[in-house]
Amino acid sequence: MNKLDMLYEGKAKKVFKTEEPDIYIIEYKDDATAFNALKKGTIQGKSVVNNKMSAILFELLKKEDIPVHFIRLLSETEQEVKAVEIVPLEVIIRNVAAGSFSKRLGVEEGSELQNTIFELCYKNDELGDPLINDYHATALGLATTQEIKKMKELSFRINDILIKFFRERAMRLIDFKVEFGRYKGEIILADEISPDTCRLWEIGTNRKMDKDRFRRDLGDIEETYKEVLNKVQN
């Protein structure tokens, strides 16, 4: 499969056409951004970590009957995926208070929540990916009621699978962001699952093992990303 025209370049990935209209190639980048791209930098080796980790977790989810866009790895930084139309919504699942949730609502980071939270954000860089609800999404034509219902159902199932997976590797899944796409009339999981999109804390110490190390200048960023991949591979 050969890369043809580049369709899109985002903050973390490039997407290319191939000879097959139903297949794209994604190339991961070492570029890092935070706070809606107000902070920019580079995390050496991030592309390899995120590509390989996403592949492992997508394969895990496929075995659990979660529909995903992932087809196969092509190289250290590239993977073959189904040619989805990305739904312009980010889904955030929160198991523990942290990050923007804690700041926005004045809840101490690390506080237990009475239930898992499902959030929607409108994917729009110019607006800063604002938090919206189901009614906003349908009123703006971003997704249908049935599509949102399916995204919600899949997100909670993904959460249950990932919580168990990471716990077995001494990591606690605090929250994560996922994106979905439309493929032949079906809503399927797309984008990536990595330290860029998951908030992971080491069990026993609460050491941050994710992009917060970049956001908050905690250091040991590259080493921690590689450590997470090693845990996931084992």
Structure description:
The protein has 234 residues and is an alpha+beta fold. It has two domains: 6-82, Phosphorylase Kinase, domain 1 (2-Layer Sandwich), CATH 3.30.200; 85-223, ATP-grasp fold, B domain (D-amino Acid Aminotransferase, Chain A, domain 1), CATH 3.30.470. The protein has helices at residues 46-63, 99-105, 134-139, 145-167, 212-215, 221-233, and strands at 6-9, 13-17, 23-28, 31-34, 39-42, 70-73, 78-82, 85-96, 112-122, 131-132, 171-183, 186-190, 198-202. Strands 8, 9, 10, 11, 12 and 13 form a six-stranded antiparallel β-sheet that branches. Strand 4 and strand 5 (39-42) form a beta hairpin. The two termini are 29 Å apart. The relative contact order is 0.16. The mean pLDDT is 96.
What's the end-to-end separation, in Å?
29 Å
Radius of gyration: 17 Å
Q: Note the run of SSEs as H and E.
A: EEEEEHEEEHEEHHEEEHH
Low-confidence stretches: none
State mean pLDDT (0 to 100 scale): 96
Secondary structure topology:
Blueprint: E1 6-9, E2 13-17, E3 23-28, E4 31-34, E5 39-42, H1 46-63, E6 70-73, E7 78-82, E8 85-96, H2 99-105, E9 112-122, E10 131-132, H3 134-139, H4 145-167, E11 171-183, E12 186-190, E13 198-202, H5 212-215, H6 221-233
Antiparallel strand pairs: 1-2, 2-3, 3-7, 4-5, 6-7, 8-9, 8-11, 9-10, 11-12, 11-13
Helix pairs in contact: 1-6
Short structural description:
The protein is of the alpha+beta class and 234 residues long.
